[in-house]
From TrEMBL:
Coiled coil: none annotated. It catalyses: 2 GTP = 3',3'-c-di-GMP + 2 diphosphate. NCBIfam families: GGDEF. SUPFAM superfamilies: Nucleotide cyclase. PROSITE patterns: GGDEF. It comes from the Bacteria. Pfam families: GGDEF. SMART domains: GGDEF. This is diguanylate cyclase. Keywords: Membrane, Transmembrane, Transmembrane helix. It comes from Devosia litorisediminis. Residues 245-377 form the GGDEF domain.
Length: 381
């Protein structure tokens, strides 16, 4: 069997390597705060292991507090990073309260001279921090089910290994330890720490890279001003094959938009664009698709819709925009919008239906703007 000192060295090197990898990943994506929390947690673990390596068989109070305090801090930061990763929340209060409870109960027990119960408490708190980290990954498993579930298993086994150390100490029943614990649970814990750190580190970095890739893809397909899909994303979604029958395509164009930019300034124009994007979002159903496809042009794709229903939705959006002007600071900027509506017929592609909706839009423009025109078939009605 490998001795405990060798296992501690292996854990220290694994922790240090993982800390460096996480820190490099964070430097490339500084908005991902969970990477920094995990890296800081690994740094504290390395400090704790370095202190443990200096004990030379001793188990006095000062040395153990010096080793176990950074270990608890590292576990708390791993817990915080897992919470941030799974919930996208930056709240630190729950972790801070748990950390304070762990530090106070463990160190007070050491100061009172009960090194056996204190060491058991340390292992219990480590088990709690790791188990809660696994729980957060379980709650977020829909994001990447396989990787998340494997992470939960590793968190669970590592937590159980700490709990086994606590149970072994309780069974032995020693209030005062004259030497570091050396039993089957300690060796199991050391091995699980190596496996857990290596596996969870690899999975954490893989999950982070997947998030970065999705974020870049979303940014490439999102209009920065309104948060809606852009033209490329819209055509990527609907360009292949025929559009299902009874799918409505609505085209909107803000009337006299160039005059708004020229007379009121580009800030006013941006405010009008953003305001209309918000009105479109609240004017359609949850599963409908909306996009900004040009400067002042917008499109909505509404499945399973009759021409009358589609025109009613377009009319509601037009009226809302007309009656509720955009605002920038204390100033309002009235504007109107024209719309064209088309319903997909059998065998029509998205481009064909979009062209019919666009033709209907220009019909509304010719008829005086601030109105909705419809296309019933392959020609404008």
């Amino acid at each position: 069997m490998i001795d405990n000192a060798t296992l501690l060295i292996a854990i220290a090197f694994s922790s240090a390597a993982l800390m460096i990898a996480l820190l490099i990943s964070w430097l490339n994506a500084r908005e991902d705060n969970y990477l920094m929390s995990w890296a800081a947690g690994m740094a504290f673990v390395v400090v704790a292991l370095a202190v443990l390596g200096l004990r030379d068989g001793r188990y006095d109070t000062a040395l153990q507090i010096g080793a176990f305090s950074p270990l608890l801090s590292g576990m708390a930061l791993i817990h915080l990073g897992s919470f941030q990763f799974a919930t996208a929340s930056q709240r630190r209060t729950p972790t801070l309260l748990l950390w304070l409870a762990a530090m106070f109960s463990t160190n007070l027990t050491f100061v009172l001279g009960w090194s056996g119960p204190a060491t058991a408490l340390l292992n219990i708190w480590c088990a709690v921090f790791i188990a809660l980290s696994g729980r957060y990954f379980w709650q977020a498993r829909r994001e990447s089910p396989l990787q998340m579930i494997v992470s939960v298993v590793l968190f669970g086994l590592t937590s159980l290994s700490f709990l086994a150390c606590a149970i072994a100490l309780v069974v032995e029943g020693n209030l005062v330890l004259s030497a570091p614990p050396n039993n089957w649970a300690e060796r199991f814990n050391s091995i699980m720490a190596i496996i857990g750190l290596t596996g969870l580190g690899a999975l954490g970095l893989t999950l982070n890279q997947s998030r970065v890739t999705r974020r870049h893809r979303d940014e490439a397909q999102t209009d920065a001003m309104t948060g809606l899909l852009n033209r490329r994303a819209l055509f990527d979604r609907f360009s292949l094959g025929e559009l299902p029958e009874q799918t409505a395509v609505l085209m909107f164009d803000i009337d006299h938009f160039k005059q708004i930019n020229d007379q009121q300034g580009h800030g006013a124009g941006d405010a009008v664009i953003q305001h209309f994007g918000n009105i479109m979002q609240r004017g359609v159903r949850k599963n409908d698709v909306i996009a900004r496809i040009g400067g002042e042009e917008f499109c909505a794709v509404l499945p399973k819709m009759s021409i009358e229903e589609a025109r009613a939705i377009a009319e509601r959006i037009r009226e809302d925009f007309d009656q509720h002007p955009a605002r920038l600071l204390a100033e309002s900027f009235p504007a109107t919008v024209s719309a064209g509506v088309a319903i997909a017929m059998a065998g029509e592609t998205f481009s064909v239906v979009l062209n019919r909706a666009d033709t209907a839009l220009y019909k509304a423009k010719r008829q005086g703007r601030n109105r909705v025109a419809g296309s019933l078939a392959r020609s404008v009605a």
